[in-house]
Write a structure and sequence with these properties.
Organism: Hyalangium minutum
Keywords: Membrane, Transmembrane, Transmembrane helix
Largest sheet: none
Oligomer: single chain
Distance between the termini: 61 Å
InterPro entries: DUF2339_TM
Helix content: over 70%
Shape: flat
Pfam families: DUF2339 (PF10101)
Number of strands: 0
Radius of gyration: 21 Å
Order of helices and strands: HHHHHHHHH
Protein name: DUF2339 domain-containing protein
Number of domains: 2
Length: 229
């Protein structure tokens, strides 16, 4: 029996190695841009999120998605290549599917898996939204409109407040923490970037709008807590 297991492992490892080598040469011979590698890896992460593999190794899919989101976002920040947008979009879809699948599967939720799922979704959403914003607004049709700088700040704040309220309502701290991650990044951007790159009415309106969103979230959270008390 042990000899059979050893044979299977040797054959499997050799087969995977040869297939990987074939993929490398195929990629090189077709002269596919390196940036498309992110899309390929993201598709693989999507497969892990939906296939039966996570049932045996439940952290494989979430780790793959989180890795794609972080590395893909950093790659785009370094190169600003539009070819990475496809990979970031697929990564975001994979993150959403991972969370959706975890909600569909019953049973007790693993804390580590939940953290990886929701922070993978957070990282993917932030990376994808910033990349698409920069490509289509900053470098595109709204390049001369400084008001575009408020889009991400307010968008991230809305997402963060919504997640905080949703997590509080469901009693799931990991969702609330993901919301606070959005809020922290949005507030950091407002203080470090918006206040120095905006002026006049736009700066006042941006800070006031962000403050109103935060106060509105606090009011809704307090009201929901009072109702459930």
């Amino acid at each position: 029996m042990n000899g059979t297991k050893w044979d299977v492992r040797v054959l499997a490892v050799a087969g995977v190695g040869l297939m990987g080598l074939a993929a490398v040469f195929l990629w090189r011979d077709l002269q596919v841009p390196m940036e498309m590698l992110l899309a390929v890896v993201a598709v693989g992460a999507t497969g892990l999120a939906l296939a039966g593999v996570p049932q045996e190794r439940p952290l494989a899919g979430p780790i793959a998605v989180l890795t794609c989101a972080v590395l893909g976002g950093a790659w785009y920040a370094a190169t600003k290549s539009g070819l990475l947008l496809a990979g970031l979009a697929v990564t975001l879809v994979a993150a959403m599917l991972s969370v959706w699948r975890s909600r569909r599967v019953g049973g007790e939720k693993d804390r580590v898996q939940s953290v990886l799922l929701w922070y993978g979704l957070t990282a993917a959403a932030i990376a994808a939204s910033w990349a698409f914003y920069f490509h289509f607004l900053t470098m595109g049709f709204a390049g001369d409109d400084v008001g575009r700088r408020l889009v991400l700040t307010l968008g991230w704040l809305v997402a963060g407040v919504a997640l905080v309220l949703h997590g509080r309502a469901r009693g799931e701290g990991v969702i609330r923490d993901a919301g606070f991650a959005f809020i922290a990044i949005a507030v950091g951007k407002a203080l470090a970037y918006d206040t120095t790159h905006l002026s006049g009415t736009l700066r006042v309106a941006g800070l006031a709008g962000a403050g109103m969103l935060m106060l509105g979230g606090a009011w809704l959270s307090a009201r929901n807590a009072a109702r459930s008390a």
